[in-house]
Amino acid sequence: IEEPKTILVIFGATGDLAKRKLYPSIYNLYKKDMLSDNFAVVGLGRKPWTNEIIRENVQKSIQSEGNDEEKLNDFKDHFYYLPFDVTNKQSYHELDELLNQLDEQYQTEGNRIFYMAMAPEFFGTIASQLKSEGVTETKGYTRLVIEKPFGHNVSSAQQLNEEISAAFAEKDIYRIDHYLGKQMVQNIEVIRFGNAIFEPLWNNRYISNIQITSSETLGVEDRGGYYEKSGALRDMVQNHMLQMVALLAMDPPIKLDPDEIRSEKIKALRSIKNISTDEVQEHFVRGQYGPGLQNGNEVPGYLSENNIAPNSHTETFVAGKFMIENHRWVGVPFYIRTGKRMSVKSTKIIVQFKDLPMNIYYNKNKDELHPNLLTIHIQPDEGVSLVLNGKKQGPNGGSIPVQLDYNNNGESTVNTPEGYERLIYDCMKGDATNFTHWDEVELSWKLIDTISNAWEGNGNNLETYESGSMGPKGSDALLAKDGFKWWPIE
Ligand code: BG6
Hints:
The chain has helices spanning about 15-30, 50-65, 70-75, 90-105, 125-130, 155-165, 185-195, 225-250, 260-270, 275-285, 420-430, 440-455, 475-480, and strands spanning about 5-10, 40-45, 80-85, 110-115, 140-145, 175, 205-215, 285-295, 295-300, 315-325, 335-340, 345-355, 375-380, 385-390, 400-405, 460-465. The chain is an alpha/beta fold.
């Protein structure tokens, strides 16, 4: 494959995302020789930085990775900085001029990627001015990479989409969901569609329920301003959790082509049952962390964190049940739960298979067959495990659950900052498979709006849970009502 030739323009180059994720990821690509020398990065921001300052910052953000000095020096010389005012046309003209000059210098064939790594209120303005001021007129490709939040509800998302679609075609819009860059999230499809033993069972005849957990130990940290308006539902469920549901529920695509895969995911999202306000109260639980003990340390509750309203009703935890109404899935609950300040940092998918029609091992020792469980370990460990029943040692026979484990230690997670590296590379190659299509975003928001509207009408149904726990009691009750329980993920 030919290495990508492109100029990457980062809006928000002095910010946290650029420093923590983007610079290290681009460097990793460079280090692995996946980038040719035909690339440049232009950082934009309000701060009066210079090329020298951005280069120092790039170096600082990468140094901890223990890198070869010479390579790092060559790398950072590809960086440029332009002080930028997103509302001022003059800034766009200066940018265009710089891009034309770098295009010649680095022979990037007019290819430009615009990466929005800043406050979302400017996404629309930037996209439309890039077009109106001619920055998107080149002989190569122009792509837009856009970070979340993609709107705040369905109408704001539609409005944002209209604004960016006026300047970029859908095929050139790369909406980031960093979960789609995770190795094991990408592996869901391979496990399902590359193995003869799972796909025949992957339906409501053999699966009883699916449990997706993404728990975090961190609290809201310094993101109170953003999080108060978002909460766990918009922050995690609208995007990451529903994307995992779609990948688990979709039908096999006819081939590995971005459009085919995305259209199957869209169909799966479309099949999720739209529920009524009453059903929201029954199927969804919201919680907020109180103080508690985490890893032996006392931590404050959400209400005492910085920039949080003292009577805030923002949820930091959601558990819920999505029902998919199609032939494959009707009757199988897809449970999701996600929250901050929980007992572990972990993302796991557990597929619980149905019980056999009868258990011949049920004997006087009260041996019960354990359900077969397939666990996809997304993070921090990456792998797959399968719980089966085996023979119990000893004269009385009986059965005992045994676990087969596959641990995917192939790729060090240190070198793949949360999938950004893969996603940036995909965008440079023009592969949109692991980015969310507008239809997916819109369908997800419709589901989320139903839930949040129902909650708004009933502000007090927020349960407090202790920091360091696995969430409020209602989360366990949600599964217990259906005769299930959350399988441990620790
Ligand atoms: C982000 C959310 O999208 O995902 C954060 O905004 C959350 O609140 C993060 O902490 C979790 O990502 P990961 O990769 O650490 O599971």
